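User: Sequence in, structure out. Go.
Assistant: Echoing your sequence, followed by the structure tokens.
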Amino acid sequence: MLLKPFVNVGTVKPEYEVADVFRGYGEAYQREYQVTYQQAKVITAIMQCRTAALGGHVEECPVCGGVRICYNPCDNRHCPKCGAFEKAQWLEARKASLLPIPYFHVVFTTDHAINPLVRANQKAIYDLLFQAATETLKAYGREYLGGEIGVTAVLHTWGEDLGEHIHLHCIVTGGALQETEKGARWQPCLEGFLFPIVKLSRDYRDAFCEGLARLHRRGELKLVGECEGLEVKALVAEMRAKKWEVYIKEAYASPEQVYDYLGRYVNRIALSNYRLVAIGGGKVSFTYHDNKNGGQEKLMILTAVEFIRRFLLHVLPRRYVRIRYYGLHHSSKRAALMLCRKLLGLRGPLPPAPQLVFMEWLLSVVEKDPRLCPFCGQGVMVRRGEFGPLSALWLWVLALLGIATLGRVVR
């Protein structure tokens, strides 16, 4: 049987990939910087994603006999090529539990002076950010709305230029559930207004700074590397003397759009392959939006080593949970959420989150059915068998046969 080369189906392969940067300049990076165990795992996963190193399966067309090799994804949450289906499932689950109310998008930023300390204490300081922001929000819900609000919080650690910009995106209910001895009622917020922003910013800053000082007193901060000898008390005083930025915006046209926005980064890291413009000569070019200049698209050119350094800054600690739910959005508050639905005029039980079927979802987001034969366009490819990771010898044999190409399908 004649083995034909595979033609990409379903998605357009980007010209450049983050994996190409790691392959070309990973050794140069390691000569300058130390790579942690977790970072090494991410680098390996991204380089092996959808290559013979992870195995795959063979498909054959029953009409023309064409054969293609499809390689497995790495499914690492930092990989630019993985996570699209998981993101879609997360979005559907969130949208199923929305109430017929306004929602607000609240963003809590941190002072950049904290960045060096974060590099040595990721988990401790990320946890502190979640705690300071969400406890402040819940306290404001009780103070200004007299009840319990719902909060979904998502951690982001990057800016458009891949630099460190540690902040928390929160989706907050525009109202609260009040429960008293006389009964329960839904208390909506004022139209277009959630909480006083200046006071919220100040109280959040103070809560974060007090929490950081507490971690230091308990000896829970590692002062190593570039943080060695750091005066944490002086750092806290410096940060506390500044104004911190907190943004509050009512949901765009609908709360679904806020979730869509957050969904871009739920299962992936800071940069998609499609933003890469060029790799070569020891440099990497990619596009970014300059938020300080009205969101204008610009070109960023970095040395390859600096690009890798910035990318790896955003690798999360092992099993770190970067999406968290509080108040009415927490799974333990299902009964309270049901009560809210009843108070707001919704009948029936809380609808279950839709369970997406992968192929049905895929057909809804691609222009061409990826199951069709890429050679004759008539037959539907049939899986003939699977194979495990291939050795260098097998890669050489496949290359001679002209079939060691990557079968790409969005996942």
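User: And one key feature?
Assistant: The mean pLDDT is 88.
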